[in-house]
């Protein structure tokens, strides 16, 4: 298998370099990926291939691939699912969690772990969370997606503070009612507002719950993204309900430790990327 992986990487580098026109890259990549049966490749080799492939790509090439990904997996999926949703009255929400991870890898050139489920979302120990407002209305016509950080033991709860980076993705509608995708990169060591709130939450909610043997051992730190159809640039945590921590705003832009690294909007079915 080692020789096969090396041969595949050599094929990639023979097809693509930084001078390859961005609008040709996806077709060349499809030509290459069609020659590899991914189910026969080990998890470790998937990470090796992805790391190699991502490093081959220039910023403009990755930006174009991100545009195509959004077009295929969000714009077109939404059209098709809305058709079925009209016929069945079932939810036509798109599972955007994995799409978000693809986008983050294209933007950062950091591969995933080659699998779903347990483990870090990116191979460098970073975490990706996604919140999707599109097609997620409840019976009252409201939508409240959130970034959930759940844990069933103390070690998992404390891991939040050790993430290499935290990538928060939001898919919503902008004030002009156009689909919008944003990704913020957070360094918890440089973002005292979020870090201090999480530590406060652990002390007030997390540790007491885990220390009480009569209570089920799981906790969930819920961070609410900027509101749908607004230009807000802050997340929210807490509420005025009894027993909850008081509400605060957590800035995501123009602040130390957090920046907007990706923004795309779908205008007249065309994906326009303004931040990459």
How are the secondary structure elements laid out?
Blueprint: H1 2-15, H2 22-33, H3 43-56, H4 59-88, H5 97-108, E1 127-132, E2 147-151, H6 154-159, E3 166-173, E4 179-186, H7 192-211, E5 219-223, E6 234-237, E7 248-251, E8 258-267, E9 270-275
Parallel strand pairs: 1-3
Antiparallel strand pairs: 2-5, 3-4, 4-8, 6-7, 8-9
Helix pairs in contact: 1-3, 2-4, 4-5
Write a concise keyword list for the protein shown above:
single chain, alpha+beta, 276 residues, two-stranded antiparallel ribbon, globular, 20% strand
Task: Explain what the structure shows.
This protein has 276 residues and is of the alpha+beta class. The chain has a domain at 92-275. It is 39% helix and 20% strand. It has helices at 2-15, 22-33, 43-56, 59-88, 97-108, 154-159, 192-211, and strands spanning 127-132, 147-151, 166-173, 179-186, 219-223, 234-237, 248-251, 258-267, 270-275. The strands form three sheets. A five-stranded mixed beta sheet has the order 1-3-4-8-9, covered by helices on one side.
The stretches of 5 or more residues where confidence is low (pLDDT under 50) are none
Which bin fits the share of residues in helices?
Answer: 25-40%
Average pLDDT works out at 91
Provide a count of the helices.
Answer: 7
> Number of DSSP strands?
9
The helix-and-strand class reads: alpha+beta
Main β-sheet: number of strands, strand sense, barrel status? 5 strands, mixed
How much strand content do the residues show? 15-25%
Terminal CA distance: 35 Å
Order of helices and strands: HHHHHEEHEEHEEEEE
Main-sheet strand order equals 1-3-4-8-9
What general outline do the C-alpha atoms trace?
Answer: globular
- What's the alpha carbon Rg, rounded to whole Å? 20 Å
């Amino acid at each position: 298998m080692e020789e096969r992986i090396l041969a595949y990487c050599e094929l990639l580098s023979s097809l693509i370099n930084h001078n390859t026109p961005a609008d040709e890259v996806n077709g060349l990549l499809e030509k290459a990926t069609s020659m590899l049966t991914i189910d026969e490749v080990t998890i470790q080799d998937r990470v090796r291939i992805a790391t190699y492939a991502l490093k081959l790509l220039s910023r403009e090439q990755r930006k174009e691939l991100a545009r195509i990904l959004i077009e295929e997996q969000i714009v077109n999926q939404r059209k098709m699912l809305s058709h079925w949703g009209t016929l069945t009255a079932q939810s036509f929400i798109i599972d955007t969690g994995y799409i978000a991870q693809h986008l983050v890898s294209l933007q950062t050139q950091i591969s995933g772990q080659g699998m779903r489920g347990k483990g870090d979302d990116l191979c460098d120990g970073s975490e990706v969370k996604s919140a999707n407002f599109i097609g997620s209305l409840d019976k009252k016509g409201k939508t409240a997606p959130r970034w959930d950080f759940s844990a069933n033991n103390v070690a998992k709860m404390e891991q939040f503070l050790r993430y290499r980076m935290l990538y928060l993705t939001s898919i919503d509608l902008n004030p002009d009612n156009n689909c919008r995708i944003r990704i913020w990169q957070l360094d918890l060591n440089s973002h005292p507002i979020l870090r201090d709130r999480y530590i406060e939450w652990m002390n007030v909610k997390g540790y007491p719950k885990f220390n009480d043997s009569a209570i089920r051992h799981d906790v969930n730190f819920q961070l609410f993204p900027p509101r749908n159809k607004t230009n807000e640039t802050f997340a929210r945590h807490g509420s005025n309900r009894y027993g909850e921590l008081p509400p605060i705003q957590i800035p995501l832009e123009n602040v130390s430790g957090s920046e907007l690294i990706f923004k795309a909007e779908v205008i007249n079915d065309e994906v326009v990327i303004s931040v990459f």
